TrEMBL record:
Superkingdom to which the source organism belongs: Bacteria
Quaternary structure and interacting proteins, as annotated: Homodimer.
Single GO term (MF): iron ion binding
Family affiliation: Belongs to the PhyH family. EctD subfamily.
Annotated protein name in UniProt: Ectoine hydroxylase
Chain's gene name: thpD
Amino acid sequence: MSIQTDPYVSRGSRSQIIERQDPVVYGNSRDNGFLTREQIRFYDENGFLFLPDFFSPNEIQKLQQEQDRLWMDNQHHNDPEIIRESQSDLIRSIFAVHRNDPFFSTLCQDSRLVSMAQEILGSDVYIHQSRINFKSGFRGKEFYWHSDFETWHAEDGMPRMRALSISIALTENNLFNGPLMVMPGSHRYFISCVGATPKNHYQESLRKQQYGIPDDDSLTFLARQCGIEMPTGSPGSLLLFDCNIMHGSSSNISPYPRSNVFVVYNSVENRVEAPFAGTEPRPEYIATRD
Ligand code: 6CS
Ligand code: FE
């Protein structure tokens, strides 16, 4: 870490709303022509971009088969990459699919996805994290409101806001099955969260997050300022979202399962350092350091 002071201090004793110090779209040096100017402008302003029906019906069928295979194969595995629900043994997330699974590794490196990430981040990119989130019917639990960057900065040492996620819908994401909610424009505010990070926090947080979540007043402010939207759609849709957008999702009490692949692309100019919370770095399957 340099002697420069950290503009995004968090996990202390007080909540604070800080203006974003970094660009959202990093120039057009990498204009590969995958996104239109209008799409990039929308992303810049709102912090996300929804691309319905991005994959073809054949690709979608293959994606769903591979998802079922991973789910079945891992039912009884105890690898650390397999995160289970806090109230049942159901699989909640499988991390590092870009490293551990040949099919999903190819998907994460799909040149269309990589090109879009490069266009927005204005440089080469690498995969900081990947996972599939399975939100089972009836029993899949919520992901409370958070900014991914807040966690990646505090717990992984990601220096600046120069990363994005691409979420690929493997099932329909509808109004009933706990779809992602985003606050459009919230990526322009950094919310400092209260509370020192416990040791090995990830062992709890990936099941149910309790540190690195904003307080009620900050969330009320953001919702007033930005509103809330739910980009729902068919399997094969894509959602690109900025690392600092405020997002979350409710529990799924519907009978319809919901699952999405998430791939996090980070700029090669923004590689992780020592975690800013002063904690031990999280394992490689959650945050790439190699
Ligand atoms: O801790 C993390 O890195 C993960 N947790 C959440 C709730 N979202 C982003 C990220 O995958
Ligand atoms: Fe998240």
